[in-house]
TrEMBL record:
Full protein name: FtsX-like permease family protein
Keyword tags: Cell membrane, Membrane, Transmembrane, Transmembrane helix
Residue ranges of every copy of the MacB-like periplasmic core domain listed in the record: 19-238, 499-696
Biological classification of the source: Bacteria, Bacillati, Actinomycetota, Actinomycetes, Kitasatosporales
Source organism per UniProt: Streptomyces rameus
PANTHER family noted in UniProt: ABC TRANSPORTER PERMEASE YTRF, MEMBRANE COMPONENT OF TRANSPORTER-RELATED
Its membrane topology: Multi-pass membrane protein
Annotated ranges, domain ABC3 transporter permease C-terminal: 274-394, 737-853
């Protein structure tokens, strides 16, 4: 009980310092719990959606997706004949059945030719209005479509794009463009998944999406009373045979959930990874806090030992304080995590995915995990200071000698740090010289971990040297105040090293990712300059194919020298060694593609691969299967016939654009794939006549703007900028997540300075008494903070650039061979670190300056 009372007294005696440490725990736990609550809520929401929208049994074409997504590379959805509907209705246990037509290979525009697509990345869906949709949608105004000139739109899309009854829209598909007017608006009864949904009548949907009537993409089947979905599936399959895909509601929902789970898992584990970094940084804060609190209570600990307290009791007292800190920070963090999850849900609502707070899911494991992590991390971080407190001898403590400096422990620490750093450096060297990216990535991961640990362990040794250098460069110009700031930073190298290391971790990751991102952009830009020989690239930014009408519009554009179509076909290959490889792709293009993209070959010429019944393979595939020029490869095209193609070229594995691609001409492929099953173009290349580049660029944009606004025309400058912007957006998102760790590191600097001021109260009083002004005192503390922050920045940026340079060596194995150091970013981060130091010192400097001189001198 005495130990508990002592712990409580000490905890509340330093509540300001504890609050900063608790904030670090709170932020880390909140990020973990917020991530888990948000992803669990997403799962719950989509589980309900998939269950609500799935019929008891669904019949679709054999080649359709398990998730029910009705799309294909031909731009037309896979279909079943209308006769299937009658067969299904005659199956035992069927209450009702209805044929539907849906497609996601569509673009919808308003009267002003603006796209009516969701901003959340969700699909645009056009389909026939049916009874299954009526279960999840409610018509709030107007009426369902009853003719070819009518369309109904979901309420969220109507609200976002200001659509009202009578407005004209256009549906652009591979079949053509269909125009209709809004006849009705329907609201979701369940959570809106973010998709833009448009409904036509069944006959119009068939003509618009497929190009003919008498077909359906799905047949929705409802079971009679007492008939299970599994039994109904068996009965329907028995009636139809095995030429169709028959799925229960659970199978469709599970397939959709599995598809979604992959995306959610990437997001969840990425965010948890950043939360883990914040926890790691928080450890330094907690270690520093308790180390300094123990040092300040040296005499108190000596008195407790003198009156009979054992080492275990002293140790236990400190750990109880840590336990209280961990519990408080974790409980508040769990609550804040729920708030973060709600905030993320609101953010998703802004981009079109409306998640209801009624579906908010807080599994018992979430708060349990948050509390466990917060408490365990805090107690473990406090263990070393607690152990040191228990080792202080009573006489040494009463003399205020504190824990004697252990030179042997310091030497051991230095040796361990040097060994870890050397081991990490050697691992990075092995990664940089690896022949294969897979092998090198393992060495890179090991090198990152070892060098990071090494710098953390050797931090005090580095602090002694670097702070002196920084003092000579930065602090000495401030005269005596600067020298005092330098001595304060050097007074306890272990503390300075730990505080700087907390900032080092976040900045090392920032520097590493900046180097990798800049190198990727520079390398890709260089490859574009060396490889791409065309002027313009036309494609859909959402990954949809280019419809034939748009290709014709491109070909009719004045000022163009050539237009190259580019398609991707699924195929099964049988190689000369007798092995069969499935799920391969053949990139079919016009022969002019060899001029548009200058692909390096190790044998033959790529132009020869576009000769009749010819193809190319890539170097790795050729080596694996013993393929040489003149070898025959049997190619079975999905949806088509089998061809025997002669290998006329082997492309280099060093290629970046289309790395690992196998080429054939569209003319060759058309001999074996029926026209109605030929995929649409993935993209189109266009080259202007000499001297007409600017005019052709303008003409191309004009030709597509009105009738095909879904396609973007880019010249090489646009393409490079787009690449730079995409990588920049990704890096900015990562930097935003790393900001959590940097915030925790800043709290660590604040806490270290605040406790350091308390520790030096008498010293500050004496300095003030002999003439140090308040302004000089504040400047001294600010300079000390700046030098600690800059020290951490130097370590972090140096370490991060080393990691980034090594990672670039691995990227070079994939063809990205240019190393580029983003000096503006690195310089900005370095300067920003100095401002971080200034900011962190504001409160401690202000409090120090307000001290009463006489009271400070009288302090024990």
């Amino acid at each position: 009980m005495t130990v508990l009372k002592t712990s409580l007294r000490n905890f509340f005696a330093h509540k300001g310092r504890m609050a900063l440490s608790a904030t670090a725990v709170l932020l880390s736990v909140a990020f973990v719990c917020g991530t888990l609550v948000f992803t669990d809520t997403m799962n719950t929401t989509f589980d309900k959606l998939f269950q609500a929208t799935s019929s008891d049994v669904t019949v679709s074409a054999q080649g359709s997706s398990d998730t029910g997504e009705t799309t294909s590379r031909t731009g037309r959805p896979p279909v079943v004949p209308a006769s299937v509907l009658g067969q299904v209705r005659s199956a035992e246990g069927v209450k009702s059945a209805e044929g539907t037509v849906f497609s996601t290979s569509v673009t919808v525009v308003d009267a002003d030719k603006d796209k009516l697509s969701p901003s959340s990345g969700a699909p645009t869906i056009v389909g026939s209005w049916n009874h299954n949709d009526a279960r999840t949608m409610e018509i709030t105004s107007g009426a369902a479509p009853r003719g070819p000139d009518q369309v109904m739109v979901d309420a969220d899309t109507a609200g976002k794009h200001h659509l009202k009854l009578g407005d004209e829209i256009g549906v652009i598909t591979a079949v053509g463009t269909h125009h209709a007017r809004v006849s009705g608006i329907a609201a979701f009864k369940v959570t809106n998944p973010g998709a833009a949904i448009f409904y036509l009548d069944t006959r119009t949907a068939q003509q618009t999406l497929v190009g003919r009537t008498g077909v359906y993409t799905n047949v929705n089947v409802t079971a009679a009373t007492g008939v299970t979905d599994e039994r109904l599936k068996r009965n329907v399959t028995a009636e139809l045979g095995h030429g169709y895909k028959v799925q229960t509601a659970k199978e469709v929902a599970d397939a959709n959930q599995k598809d979604l789970q992959g995306i959610l898992d990437v997001m969840k584990y990425a965010m948890l990874g950043f939360a883990g970094i914040a926890f790691l940084v928080g450890i330094f804060l907690i270690v520093n806090t308790f180390s300094m609190l123990v040092a300040q209570r040296t005499r108190e600990i000596g008195l407790m030992r003198a009156i009979g307290s054992s080492r275990k009791q002293i140790n236990r007292s400190v750990l109880i304080e840590a336990l209280l800190l961990g519990v408080l920070g974790s409980v508040l963090g769990v609550g804040a995590g729920v708030g973060i999850a709600v905030g993320l849900m609101k953010l998703m609502g802004q981009v079109g995915m409306h998640l209801s707070t009624s579906d908010l899911t807080v599994a018992w494991t979430t708060p349990a995990l948050g509390l466990l992590l917060g408490v365990v991390v805090t107690v473990l971080a406090a263990y070393l200071p607690a152990r040191r407190a228990g080792k202080i001898s009573p006489m040494a403590a009463l003399r205020e000698a504190g824990a004697p400096a252990d030179a042997r422990a310091g030497a051991v620490r230095a040796v361990i740090g040097v060994l870890l750093t050397a081991g990490g450096g050697w691992s990075l060297r092995l990664a940089a010289t690896a022949d294969q990216a897979k092998t090198g990535s393992g060495w890179l991961g090991l090198g990152v971990v070892l060098t990071l640990l090494g710098f953390v362990v050797i931090g005090p040794l580095l602090a002694g040297g670097l702070v002196r250098v920084l003092g000579a460069l930065i602090l000495r110009i401030f005269g005596p105040v600067g020298r005092m700031a330098e001595r304060n930073a050097l007074r306890n190298p272990r503390r300075t090293g730990a505080t700087g290391a907390a900032l080092m971790i976040g900045l090392a990751l920032v520097a590493c990712l900046s180097v990798v991102g800049s190198s990727m952009v520079a390398s890709a830009t260089d490859q574009l300059d060396k490889t791409v020989g065309t002027d313009f690239i036309i494609q859909d930014d959402n990954g949809k194919e280019v419809v034939p009408q748009a290709v014709e519009a491109i070909k009719k554009t004045p000022g163009l020298k050539r237009v190259t179509e580019y398609k991707v076909l699924d195929a099964t290959l049988t190689t000369p060694d007798g092995r069969t490889t499935e799920k391969e792709t053949i990139n079919a293009a016009d022969p002019t593609y060899a001029q548009d993209v200058r692909t390096k070959t190790v044998a033959g010429s790529l132009a020869d691969a576009y000769r009749p019944d010819s193809m190319s393979v890539f170097e790795g595939f050729a080596d694996k299967h013993g393929i040489k020029l003149g070898s025959k490869v049997t190619v079975h095209f999905r949806g088509g016939r089998t061809a025997g193609l002669t290998v006329r070229a082997i492309t280099s594995d060093e290629a970046v654009i289309d790395k690992g691609a196998m080429y054939a001409s569209i003319t060759t492929v058309a001999r074996y794939v029926p026209a109605d099953r030929m995929p649409l173009d993935v993209l189109v290349f266009a080259t202007a006549r000499d001297g007409q580049e600017a005019a052709a660029y303008t003409s191309l944009k004009a030709a597509l703007h009105d009738d095909f606004p879904q396609y973007t025309v880019r010249d090489q400058t646009d393409y490079k900028q787009e690449l730079k912007d995409q990588i920049g957006q990704l890096l900015n998102m990562i930097y935003g997540l790393l900001a959590l760790a940097i915030i925790v590191a800043v709290l660590g600097v604040v806490n270290t300075l605040a406790l350091s001021v308390v520790e030096r109260t008498r010293e500050i009083g004496l300095m003030r008494a002999i003439g140090l002004s308040r302004r000089q005192l504040r400047r001294m503390i600010r300079l000390e903070s700046v030098v600690i922050a800059v020290f951490g920045a130097l370590l972090g940026l140096g370490l991060g650039m080393g990691w980034g340079a090594t990672a670039q060596k691995l990227l070079a194995l994939e063809g990205l061979k240019i190393l580029e150091i983003p000096w503006p970013t690195i310089t900005g981060v370095f300067v920003g670190s100095a401002f971080v130091g200034l900011f962190a010192a504001l409160v401690p400097a202000f409090r120090a300056a307000r001290m009463n001189v006489l009271n400070a001198i009288a302090t024990d």
